[in-house]
Amino acid sequence: MGHKLLDKLLKENIIDNKEKYYRLAFSYVKNADDALDILQESIYKAFTGIGKIQNPEYIKTWFYRIVVNTSIDFLRKNKKAVAVDSDILESHIKAEEDLYEDIDLHRAIETLKPDYKSIIILRYFEDLKIEEVAEILGENVNTIKTRLYRALKLLRVQMEENI
Fold first, then answer.
1. What's 122's DSSP letter?
2. Would you call 163 helix, strand, or coil by DSSP?
3. Where does the sequence pass through the membrane (predicted)?
4. Which residues of the chain have pLDDT under 50?
């Protein structure tokens, strides 16, 4: 497949999903300017590495992985704590739960280790399938399932302690 067609598909994917990619970056850095920088760097990395794409069907997953890795690299480089902004998460929760329960959930998510937090964000807030989460994070499906189970168990314990 030619680079021009891949460039076009990548451009369309970024435009169609820009809010999701921004939210993902923001969920790691909790800062609008940093999230925009991460998104810009991710776009640059994607266009310079577009030749690595073997199957155009995986462009979305491939770009998610770039955003996740760029976010994690940014945090390592700047030694910032990984935190999920409760306002952003709150805007994505569609359940009609009590506001106090939402706040408790956000606080509980903030206590998770980055590996668990990434899985929760990608699976439930970005509504990706387990297989897509595994692909994005570069892990096998069983590892993701195990981490997701542990993350949900930890969240459940945190929520029960807050009752």
1. I
2. coil
3. none
4. 80-101
Long-range Cβ pairs for the range 28-34 (8 Å, 24+): 28/68, 28/71, 28/72, 28/74, 28/75, 28/82, 28/84, 29/71, 29/74, 29/75, 29/80, 30/83, 30/84, 30/85, 34/74, 34/78
Domains of the chain: 1-83 (1.10.1740.10), 84-163 (1.10.10.10)
8 to each of 12, 21, 61, how far by Cα in Å?
6, 18, 16
CA distance 161 to 154: 11
pLDDT of 40 reads: 95
Q: How far is CA 134 from the centre of its chain?
A: 12
Distances (CA, A) of 130 to 138, 145, 148: 12, 7, 9
Question: Would you say the pTM of this structure is higher than 0.70?
Answer: no
